[in-house]
């Protein structure tokens, strides 16, 4: 499958992702903790949709991602938007030497793609090293409830006539993990469709476990909220947000 087709379907099928809500979280927490700096590291930036939005909002933004093809798309978006953004191909568990940042974000459950406890702990250590004193580290993850009840054993589908997917999720090999088999169909000329397949693994941990690892890395956990609100998580919350500072 050609890269331009993959990029096309990714952004098309992600068009309803609430990027503006992540921006609201960032701006709210930045104001609350009186972070004056604008140096922002966006970790797991993907095709750069949110990264470019952050730059347009006035942040001096750097994006990192593991996927070279995603980063190519991100760079193209930045150029089209007239934004000067540096992008690097980098594993978040090995990230470093990018300078100091006033804010670091890992949004859209990107952290859940790390498969081991060691990778999560190392990522937190890396983020702490790159965060300036009194800076903010913000990230969100899938809840244990979402992974075990809303993913495992479920099938989802989408079809708008031009692009379609079938998404099957299964229980993963680790506790609180899921495996996703996705089949995409992209309409070409006439009535022909091109097919390609993707396989993804995601893993999450309990809130208490994340808090322990954050503390171990040197962060102060300021708040844990759910689903883009300022409320504490419930047993049926789906997306958990962590707000952390470096004091």
From TrEMBL:
Q: Which domain of life does this protein belong to?
A: Bacteria
Methyltransferase domain mapped to chain residues? 41-135
List GO molecular-function terms, semicolon-separated: methyltransferase activity
Q: Which UniProt keywords apply?
A: Methyltransferase, Transferase
Range of residues in the leader sequence: none
Asked if the Swiss-Prot or TrEMBL record annotates the protein with the keyword Transit peptide, the reply is: no
Any Gene Ontology biological process:
methylation
Protein name (Swiss-Prot/TrEMBL): Class I SAM-dependent DNA methyltransferase
